[in-house]
Write a structure and sequence with these properties.
With about 290 residues, the protein is mainly alpha-helical. Helices cover about 75% and strands about 0% of the residues. Helix 1 runs antiparallel to helix 10 (about 205-230), helix 2 packs antiparallel against helix 8 and helix 3 (about 60-85) packs across helix 8 (about 170-190).
């Protein structure tokens, strides 16, 4: 696989930024909306926006339907049900388990071979995650933690499935996963949640603005960048950028939710950035820009 171009590097950096802030905004909205219902509206909006602009992925329906079940319906149901019981910044730290899951599954299913430099970078970054974790005790229960960890594995498995898709663009993947995931999520909400009608009827404008962010920015734009990148590069090469996600979530949680930035969070975030630099920076990166 080729090295990242300057444009692709910017895309890879925006993914954790958009997703990290999505955790913060979703955390606020989950206080009003049942989490699976919130995710259903998120993907409904994404589907309604993108379906008109992408071609039908002929011959890919079964694959994408399966991906939607694993990487959207199951993953988001588990993750955001768990997030409801956790502080946004701390939840984003746990979500970093997506990276080793993704690298491990990439090696197992795709026969990718992470090099020593990448493992050193991941180790340094996870040392940063460990530093960030040495603050207050998790404000959620062990059940919430287990749900988020399970969601991490489901997400990583879904990305391996996406990686195996051929002859389909990143925006097609994003759009059609949303189309299939929407009814799946509404069904899961109906089975596992209550109070949906009351939540919808009493939702304030800020909640709907959150749905707009989750559907348009976090999903449409964020997953367009992500799906484009993992179809052009090894998942083990793209995944380490996600280690930046807790940095953005912690900062966003401080400004938007009043969560405290501890010294552990600060030094941990700095260490994560160091690990990312070890993994991805290349001396020729800025001399290989797309024209």
């Amino acid at each position: 696989m080729n090295q990242f171009t300057f444009k692709q590097t910017l895309m890879a950096l925006f993914v954790p930024l958009l997703w990290g802030l999505g955790f913060v905004f979703a955390k606020g909205a989950i206080n009003h909306f049942p989490p699976i219902l919130l995710m259903a509206f998120r993907f409904l909006l994404t589907a309604l926006v993108l379906v008109w602009f992408v071609p039908i992925p002929k011959g890919k329906f079964v694959q994408i339907f399966k991906i939607a079940i694993v990487a959207a319906a199951i993953q988001y149901s588990l993750t955001f049900t768990g997030v409801k019981g956790l502080e946004a910044g701390l939840a984003s730290i746990i979500v970093q388990l997506e990276v080793p899951f993704l690298v491990l599954l990439g090696a197992f299913f795709l026969k990718e071979k992470p090099g020593l430099k990448k493992w050193i970078g991941i180790t340094v970054s996870f040392f940063g995650v460990a530093i960030m974790s040495q603050q207050d005790e998790l404000s959620g229960s062990l059940v919430s933690v287990a749900l988020v960890v399970s969601g991490c594995f489901a997400w990583a498995l879904g990305q391996i499935m996406v990686r195996k898709l051929n002859n389909i663009t990143g925006i097609q993947v994003t759009a059609w996963i949303a189309i299939f995931a929407t009814p799946q999520l509404f069904l899961m909400s109906a089975i596992f949640e209550t109070g949906q009608i009351q939540a919808i009827s009493t939702a304030e404008p800020l909640v709907w603005w959150t749905v707009l962010y989750l559907g348009l920015i976090m999903t449409c734009l964020g997953y367009f960048f992500w799906n484009t990148l993992i179809r052009q590069h090894d998942v083990g090469k793209v995944a380490p950028f996600l280690l930046l996600l807790p940095v953005f979530s912690v900062v966003g949680g401080h400004f938007f939710l009043g969560e405290t930035i501890t010294i552990e969070k600060f030094y941990g975030g700095t260490t994560i950035l160091l690990g990312i630099g070890i993994i991805v920076l290349n001396p020729n990166l800025f001399f290989n820009r797309e024209r």
